[in-house]
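Example record

The entry below shows one chain as it appears in the dataset: sequence first, then structure tokens.
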Amino acid sequence: MVEKIVRVVKWIKPSSPVLKLNTDRSCINATCGGGGVLRDYQGRVIMAFIFPLGHGTNNQAEVVTLLFGLKWCIVNGVSSIIVEVVSLLVLNCTIDVWEILWRIEDTVKEIKNLVGIHDIPIQHCFREANKVANKLASLSHSLTHVQVYSHFNTIPRIVKGILNIDRWECPSFRVIKRKANTLSFDLP
């Protein structure tokens, strides 16, 4: 028997004056890219980016995309931010819950250094609450160089609708299918 659990999930606006950075990655046939968006307490876009990476793994793409977003914020004087990522592996490696995989070790150490120096919290979010970053990441496969958007009007049209849905606080539904964890059998 399969049990379905349905949860209402939505992107949560940060408290003023904090900004929220969401990042995600996309990999198709080992070609990877990333995307991210920085938004304010009203859900308005401060910055969004699409980052083609070339050949790599999901985890490499995830950490390189996160590092790009963090560095952009720091270089541009954005100090009061919170970061949300979908990857529990990246989150748990960054906050020292899990051992760091050797392929991403240098990048994770750099992220940990920046997060520590600038006191930036990183937390997990469900993919249903990270649709903007996910869509931006998926667009990376059609680019050859980094795109940074600093105004809503310049963002790809396909992403604007998702941004508005988040801004209006419209929920998504997360459906989790779980198999029953009990064994039943007939005795002979």
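Notes for this example: The two ends are 22 Å apart (CA to CA). Residues 16 and 41 are 5 Å apart (CA to CA).
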